[in-house]
């Protein structure tokens, strides 16, 4: 996952500071040296690092900080605010034309993820009840038009193409007219990319620009390429006046340099971040939330938003009722896993929960999609009757389930044991909250409950 190294290093610096009652000037200087190294190692542009450290230092050595009750926390807060500022301060939203359609021109090098991002953007706009038109303007890469058509089919968005024999400038012009004629409120123009920035490409992009007069020129950059991504952004910006950047592949193990430098170097805000190959893996970029993810403080807001747009609330309510009445079966368990999976890779979800990222690093908690898959395989190998009455799953049934799911008896035993514990806890919980419980009793029992508790998927 992106930023892992940076997060670990920063957390080490901060835990040293946090442990101190008083913080001396030397402590701050030492911490700043380590933050500086951590940023450089994460491939952040060296000028950006220098300015960043100067700003943090200026704020951190003040008297108020030293004499505050929790100097360590105050310094973390300063770093958090400066990181947020570095990435643009607040969210930079997509422009909207006064008179539709709003025209989005997608530019970038080959392989950065331009075509995929065009599809993801279209899907995001559809979710907001818009009707985007995709325009296939990359006539040079043989499969690009087909790729966009396939994406369009998947999300049921119209794709405008004139094949690969018409000039991209003409395609863009006619595409825009087509959108006007058909009442599309957004036009997303996918343009060609090259392996390197070259004059011919820029000229073509400038011509398209002057014909369609876009509301947004979005540069798609691959965050895995680190400083190169920043150089590419600077170059495009000099030639084209970008209005925003989309960072792709933030799900990979990028060290984070691009995300942290691109705004400072080009002045161009990051508008979206892409965290996976799937079509719903695009997120609006929130600098403050990204900063808190980098500092290992989680990002509950994004998680809640994801849940709101992906989880079936009726099903969630029904699940809650079952849990309260301790009617929870393995069938419900499967359903719940399905809901969680809709939110994205489990690894990414964990990073959004405060503290979880750190637990993951400590290897206390091993939850990944592969393991979720094994758990699912076990449950799928149960008969309907077994799923509904987990108590009937005796030794010989367990052996059959292990063989059927390609796992081991130990794994099946563990899952069933944890499932039982989970049910018992739910039962205790609902008893506590029930008429005989009362608040004080509930609190008392809650304290005892934590002891035997294990995370169900460990
Ligand atoms: N893991 C991951 N892969 C991505 C992401 N975005 C795009 N990709 C992958 O990157 C590859 C290149 O994406 P494309 O959209 O084909 O690239 P492109 O920029 O359109 O390339 P050209 O059309 O040749 O300019 C594809 O395999 C995508 O699935 C992302 O956020 N995460």
UniProtKB/TrEMBL annotation:
Cited PROSITE patterns: SRP54
Domain (SRP54-type proteins GTP-binding): residue spans on this chain: 269-282
Assigned keywords, A-Z: Cytoplasm, GTP-binding, Hydrolase, Nucleotide-binding, Ribonucleoprotein, RNA-binding, Signal recognition particle
Listed EC numbers: 3.6.5.4
Recorded GO MF terms: 7S RNA binding; GTP binding; GTPase activity
Catalytic activity: GTP + H2O = GDP + phosphate + H(+)
Binding site for GTP: 108-115, 190-194, 248-251
Function: Involved in targeting and insertion of nascent membrane proteins into the cytoplasmic membrane. Binds to the hydrophobic signal sequence of the ribosome-nascent chain (RNC) as it emerges from the ribosomes. The SRP-RNC complex is then targeted to the cytoplasmic membrane where it interacts with the SRP receptor FtsY.
Subunit structure: Part of the signal recognition particle protein translocation system, which is composed of SRP and FtsY.
NCBIfam families: ffh
Family: Belongs to the GTP-binding SRP family. SRP54 subfamily.
HAMAP family per UniProt: SRP54
Protein's UniProt name: Signal recognition particle protein
Organism of this sequence: Paenibacillus taichungensis
């Amino acid at each position: 996952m992106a930023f892992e190294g940076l997060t670990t290093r920063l957390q080490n610096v901060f835990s040293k500071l946090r442990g101190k009652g008083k913080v001396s000037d030397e402590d701050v200087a030492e911490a700043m040296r380590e933050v500086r190294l951590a940023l450089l190692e994460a491939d952040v542009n060296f000028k950006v690092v220098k300015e960043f450290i100067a700003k943090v230092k200026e704020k951190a050595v003040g008297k108020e900080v030293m004499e505050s009750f929790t100097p360590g926390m105050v310094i973390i807060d300063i770093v958090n605010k400066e990181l947020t500022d570095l990435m643009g301060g607040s969210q930079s939203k997509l422009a909207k034309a006064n008179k539709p359609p709003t025209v989005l021109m997608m530019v970038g090098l080959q392989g950065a993820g331009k075509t995929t991002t065009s599809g993801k953007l279209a899907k995001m706009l559809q979710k907001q009840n818009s009707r985007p038109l995709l325009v296939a303007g990359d006539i040079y890469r043989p499969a690009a038009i087909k790729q966009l058509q396939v994406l369009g089919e998947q999300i049921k968005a119209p794709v405008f193409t004139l094949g690969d024999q018409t000039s991209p400038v003409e395609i863009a012009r006619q595409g825009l007219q087509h959108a006007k004629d058909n009442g599309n409120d957004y036009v997303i123009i996918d343009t060609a990319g090259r392996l390197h920035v070259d004059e011919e490409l820029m000229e073509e992009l400038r011509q398209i620009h002057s014909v369609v007069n876009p509301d947004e020129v979005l540069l798609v950059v691959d965050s895995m390429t680190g400083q190169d991504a920043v150089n590419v952004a600077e170059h495009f910006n000099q030639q084209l006046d970008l209005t925003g950047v989309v960072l792709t592949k933030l799900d990979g193990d990028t060290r984070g340099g691009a995300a942290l430098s691109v705004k400072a170097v080009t002045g161009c805000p990051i508008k979206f971040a892409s965290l996976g190959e799937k079509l719903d893996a695009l997120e609006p970029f929130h600098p403050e939330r990204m900063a808190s993810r980098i500092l290992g403080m989680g990002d509950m807001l994004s998680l809640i938003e994801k849940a709101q747009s992906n989880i079936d609330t009726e099903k969630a309510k029904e699940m809650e009722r079952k849990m309260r009445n301790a009617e929870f079966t393995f069938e419900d368990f499967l359903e719940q896993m399905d809901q969680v999976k809709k939110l994205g890779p489990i690894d990414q979800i964990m990073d959004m929960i405060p503290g979880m990222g750190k637990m993951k690093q400590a290897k206390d908690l091993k939850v990944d999609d592969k393991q979720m898959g094994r758990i699912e395989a076990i449950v799928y190998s149960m008969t309907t009757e077994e799923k509904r009455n987990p108590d009937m799953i005796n030794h010989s049934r367990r052996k059959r389930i292990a063989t059927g799911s390609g796992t081991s008896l130990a794994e099946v035993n563990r899952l069933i044991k944890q499932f039982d514990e989970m049910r018992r806890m739910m039962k205790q919980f609902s008893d506590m909250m029930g008429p005989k419980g009362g608040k004080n009793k509930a609190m008392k029992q809650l304290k005892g409950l934590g002891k035997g508790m294990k995370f169900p998927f460990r």
